[in-house]
Amino acid sequence: MSKTDAAPRLSIVIVSWQSGTELVACVESLAAARRLAAFEIELVIVDNASTDFPASGVDSAWPGARLIRNEANRGFGPAANQGATAAGGDVVLFLNPDTRAVDSPFPPLLDAFEEHPEAVAVVPRLLDADSPGHAPQSHFQLRRLPSMGQATRELLLLDRLFPNSRAARRAHYLDRDLDRPFAVEQPAAAALTVRRDVFRRLGGFDESFVPAWFEDVDLCARLLDEGTILYWPTSRFDHLGGGAARSLGYDWFLPVYYRNACRYWRKHHGRTGSATYRTLLCVGMVLRLIALPLAPASPASATRAFARAILVALGIGIGPAPARPR
Predict the structure, then answer these.
(1) Which residues make Cβ contacts (< 8 Å) with residue 102, sequence separation at least 6?
(2) Residue 1's pLDDT band (boundaries 50, 70, 90)?
(3) Total Cβ atoms within 10 A of residue 300
(4) Residue-range domains of the chain with CATH
(5) Confidence class of residue 247 from pLDDT cuts 50, 70 and 90?
(6) SS3 per-residue string spanning 123-189
(7) pTM higher than the cut 0.85
(8) Of 229, 234, 237, nearest to 113 (Cα)?
(9) Whole-number Å distance between alpha carbons of 49 and 154
């Protein structure tokens, strides 16, 4: 049986929305890396009603890729679940369209699962692509699960004031050697490999976290009840990052992000934890309004963002944001 006739051992699932040429560049890099692997890999792309979906470019880069075209934008979690349902590999690698394979990232992922049967998920290393103005991948990719201490430092701007504090570095695993594997709690879903049977048993991503954000945090919290999540740096991908936030706009990204954060706290920490988090959120947004001249967006956009986040903290609806998942 040839490699192309064999059942896939690895399924790659990409959720796209208005990704255009960026998606094609991603698929081209994956196709080049596939040629270096000695096992079958399949590609499943779920498109959330893009108006610029590059079907011919994808087909040229990866003939036979499975394309699922949604008539409406369902959000990241629901679309990722669609892709995982269609996947046939032993493990499923979720990738964002703004990632690029570096060298041969696929064999190390399967090696990690084989060497560590207790691992339910394996995380490749994300490297900085050309992303001026955005936090480096070392601050973005690996995090511990949300805690009240972490929420206090982030919302009350303590991490901004003391970015290299022991607590801040520990929260992002910056106190660890990033060239060596280790267990982590909450890696970003921009590049996340999960055993397919475990993912399906858990019901996949919680589809209430739409259009995006915190669905990966929730999934990781549930995965840790099943086994270990391993960071595996010999598998590497470049990552641009920030696309969803840019497309949604700061004044909608921030309240939607915190709306899903509140949903996470209610689900995993109950009414008391949720109420405490909402109080911190309200105080934090007031502090940001006071410090408005230092805001990362235009004053008008930042004002709207912080005001809407306060409404979220108070449990007041902000209306539907444009559904633009990462």
Answers:
(1) 127, 236, 237, 238
(2) very low
(3) 9
(4) 3-241 (3.90.550.10), 248-313 (no CATH)
(5) low
(6) EEEEEECCCCCCCCHHHHCEECCCCHHHHHHHHCCHHHHCCCCHHHHHHCCCCCCCCCCEEECEECC
(7) yes
(8) 229
(9) 35
